[in-house]
Design brief:
With 92 residues, the chain is an alpha+beta fold. It is built from three helices and four strands. The chain has a four-stranded antiparallel beta sheet with strand order 1-4-2-3, covered by helices on one side. Strand 2 and strand 3 form a beta hairpin. The mean pLDDT is 95.
Length: 92
């Protein structure tokens, strides 16, 4: 299983708008991705309710993971999105 640990860069954490951005991005990468807080069960990163339920705030660490073949690049892109608090998924 591939995983990326990342610190949430959005000032408001993974709430409302940032959660929606992450869910759209996770859906767009084309592989199943889970997100969780260290030591807690992960949730589907393509589920806005799941992401909101994490209660992850700015500066909190989250773990993005996937057991799909070739998931590394997708996780890298999602990790950058979360870390940098971007408004859309980075290209390439």
């Amino acid at each position: 299983m591939a995983e990326r640990r990342v610190t949430v860069g959005w000032a408001e954490g993974l709430h409302a708008r940032p959660a929606s951005i992450l869910v759209r991005a996770a859906t767009a990468v084309g592989v199943p991705v889970a997100i969780g807080r260290p030591g807690a069960p992960p949730v589907n990163a393509a589920s806005v309710l799941g992401v909101l339920a994490l209660g992850a705030g700015a500066g909190d660490e989250v773990v993005l993971s996937s057991d799909a073949d070739g998931a590394g690049p997708a996780l890298d892109r999602l990790a950058r999105l979360v870390r940098d608090g971007l408004d859309e998924l980075p290209q390439g």
